[in-house]
Design a protein that fits this description.
With about 400 residues, the protein is an alpha/beta fold. It has a 7-stranded mixed β-sheet, with helices on both faces. α9 links the parallel β5 and β6. α2 packs antiparallel against α4, α5 runs parallel beside α6 and α14 packs across α16. It is globular and about 75 Å long. It starts with 5 loop residues before the first helix and ends with a helix.
């Protein structure tokens, strides 16, 4: 016997197949229980019970669909996964315990000893450490390239190259990679392209439409949007995600039901939050580049950005993160940061609260000085994740930093 409202839920699913991004962010991935709740339910349970030993055996063998154990089957986590797949326009998503766990799952689920990766040199510092230090121990080698140089991507390809990995815009300099062009390079050599879409989210960038095979997110950032939980997600075809799912099931780098519920609810406001971040960031970038104490501002929304034309071509917006170099050295950058009063000094980003950090000694501090220099991360560089405070208040706080130079 079908549960009450089953036919209406079927009609809703048909409607969602034709829905826009804001509707998907609010409606996709919800399956109401027999209680008829309007808000999404949360299932904080480690395991699930069965009506019989036969049903338990059928679930564990895979002959029958259903919940088994929350390490790999939980309704709340699954709801978040379905919503993320819908937003990115993919077949399937797999949630993980963190953004780094999402990248790790790609490396260990899809690659093996003897495989080779080509990775942008302008990615999050921990991503570089993961490929360079840890995946190398599993016999997986990595070549790092200039993300802007298509010839470098092509030249780095080896006979054993299986994966190309990039982050665009990059953290923290906002360097862009031509996703469509790099996807063509990857596919010509029978490799996959994975794109870290953390900075822009599906609101401002849709990598699958440009040829990407895999998209990853640190859900900790904009998907949550309020700095509450840590999590990640991998999105792609059902075939590739089945391998990712198998790794998470066995390796245990899973997302908790509570965190999944927080992220699932956070997605409901993703579009309006990203638009607000973008408006404030554009105003701050424009203002900062006019200040005498600032040497350079990195933000793809500025016409002065070297890749502004590419940003317009492959993005629907410019995001909420910008970086800038102050006049002086590391001491000047630290004086600027310490003089602010409202913005939060923290390495996290994507929060409704504006945050500020010194990349060379925090987020990218584990890189060698040579690697930082090659990536363009200078001692006088500051990263600002622009939040939702009144723009006049953010500007006033930045002025305090400028006054300390």
């Amino acid at each position: 016997m079908a549960k009450p409202g089953f036919e209406r839920e079927q009609r809703i699913q048909f409607t969602l197949a034709q829905a826009g991004l804001s509707t998907l962010a609010i409606r996709a991935g919800q399956t109401r229980t027999a209680e008829g709740e309007h808000s999404d339910a949360i299932f904080p349970t480690s395991s699930f019970v069965y009506s019989s030993a036969r049903e338990a055996a059928a679930r564990f063998s895979g002959d029958e669909e259903g919940n088994i154990y929350s390490r790999f089957t939980n309704p709340t986590v699954h709801a978040f996964e379905k919503r993320m797949a819908a937003l990115e326009g993919a077949e399937r998503a797999v949630a993980t315990s963190s953004g780094m766990a999402a990248i790790l799952s790609i490396g260990l689920a899809l690659l093996q000893q003897g495989d080779h990766v080509v990775c942008s040199r302008s990615v999050f510092g921990s991503t570089i450490s993961l490929f360079e230090k840890y995946l190398s121990r599993a016999g997986i080698s990595t070549t790092f390239v200039d993300p802007k140089d298509l010839h470098a991507w092509e030249a780095a390809i080896q006979a054993n190259t299986r994966l190309l990995f990039l982050e665009t815009p990059s953290n923290p300099l906002g360097e862009l990679t031509d996703i469509k062009a790099v996807a063509a390079i990857a596919h010509k050599h029978d490799a996959w392209l994975a794109v870290d879409n953390c900075f822009l989210t599906p609101v401002f960038q849709r990598p699958f439409l440009l040829g990407a095979d895999i998209v990853i997110h640190s859900a900790t950032k904009y998907l949550d949007g309020q700095g509450r939980c840590v999590g990640g997600v991998v999105v792609g075809s059902d075939t590739l995600m089945e391998e990712i799912y198998g790794f998470i099931r066995t390796g245990g780098a899973c997302m908790s039901p509570f965190n999944a519920w927080v992220f699932h609810k956070g997605l409901e406001t993703l579009k309006i939050r990203m638009e607000a971040h973008g408006r404030n960031a554009m105003e701050m970038a424009t203002w900062l580049q006019q200040q005498p104490g600032i040497e350079k501002v990195y933000y793809t929304g500025l016409e002065s950005h070297a890749q502004h034309a590419l940003a317009i071509q492959q993005q629907n917006g410019f995001g909420g993160v910008l970086s800038f170099e102050v006049r002086g050295d590391q001491d000047a950058a630290w004086r600027f940061i310490d003089a602010t009063q409202m913005v939060s000094i923290t390495g996290n980003l994507g929060d409704v609260k504006s945050t500020i950090t010194h990349p060379a000694t925090t987020t990218h501090g584990r890189m060698t000085p040579e690697a930082r220099a090659e990536a363009g991360i200078k001692p006088n560089l500051i990263r600002l994740s622009v939040g939702h405070e009144d723009i006049d208040d953010i500007r006033a706080d930045m002025q305090l930093g400028l006054n300390a130079l």
